[in-house]
Design brief:
By secondary structure, the chain is an alpha+beta fold. The radius of gyration is 18 Å and the shape is globular. The N and C termini lie close together (5 Å).
Length: 292
């Protein structure tokens, strides 16, 4: 059966999404979400995007956030995607609040919108706690360390790459390097680290140049999507790990391929939390036909 559906195309720092409103009714059947998300995300053959976001009804918060990667897999959380959702539900009068609660697969996030003349200029998201214990990421430290995954040597086809890992609702592996990130062969390292045995549920991969304790450059390979212009949870993870390793201060400006994000870390002595701030944009609204 062919079904016509409405959607909105959005992006946050070049990370682009197809947004579908399911707050009133199910638009794409649950059993078809993986398959259809993959199909409509395929560039040149369909709308094309890094993923598909569903705005859903929530019994716990103002709205529920679901996101599917371009390969059809469902992700627990996405920093850029959740900013798009916050702007979307505000603009559509679904949740007309400048401070809103958003349910994710991980927990409930608070979004604080800066609104000028009814235009959402940027969105601040409480990203929550960073998890560094390998079992919680999940990850398996090559050294056998079960307390944290910091500066571990990951074997990438015979080359030892120093990686650190953390979860902020989804797993991230970060390499702080003196090599200019523009010179890193992401197509080689990205998929090999993403699927490395050290990361049983795969992992998002980031290479970072520390410009100063308050500024970094990031190159990202996203789990299930490949190279991506920006990753909000990834940027948060890079800053959390940089702070934990004494490389970065509490407030950091991060430069990504698609633009900039501001991350603020709060040290609670026995754990770290972070807040992410950045913009989101609506590109266009349209309808498309899908095969159900």
């Amino acid at each position: 059966m062919i079904k016509e559906i409405e959607f909105t195309k959005m992006h946050a720092l070049g990370n682009d999404y197809i947004v579908i409103n399911e707050t009133e009714e199910e638009i794409i059947p649950e059993e078809s979400k993986n398959k259809i998300s993959k199909e409509i995300s395929t560039r040149r053959f369909n709308v094309g995007a890094d993923g598909v976001i569903f705005a859903c009804k929530s019994d716990k918060a103002d709205v529920r956030f679901r996101i599917f990667n371009s390969d059809g897999s469902e992700a627990q959380m996405c920093g850029n995607g959740i900013r798009c959702l916050a702007k979307y539900v505000y603009d559509k009068d679904i949740v007309k609040k400048e401070t809103m609660k958003i349910e994710t697969m991980e927990d409930i996030k608070e979004a604080r919108l800066t609104v000028v003349d009814d235009n959402v200029e940027d969105i601040e998201i409480d990203m929550g706690k960073g998890f560094f214990i390998p079992e919680e990421i999940p990850a398996i430290a090559p050294s056998g360390d079960t307390t944290e995954f910091i500066d571990e040597e990951v074997d990438v086809e015979g080359e030892k790459v120093k990686m650190s890992a953390v979860s902020v609702g989804n797993p991230h592996a970060v390499c702080f390097t003196d090599i200019n990130i523009d010179d890193i062969d992401l197509d080689f390292y990205g998929p090999r680290i993403e699927t490395h045995e050290a990361f049983p549920e795969k992992v998002n991969v980031h290479f970072v140049n520390v410009l100063s304790p308050e500024e970094i450059d990031i190159l990202t390979w996203e789990r299930g999507a490949g190279f991506t212009y920006a990753c909000g949870t990834g940027t948060t993870s890079c800053v959390l790990l940089g702070y934990k390793q004494g490389l970065l201060n509490e407030k950091v400006l991060a430069h990504l391929s698609g633009g900039d994000l501001n991350i603020t870390v709060t040290d609670h002595s026995d754990y770290l939390t972070a807040v992410m701030k950045g913009a989101a944009f609506t590109v266009y609204e349209a309808t498309m036909n899908i095969q159900i």
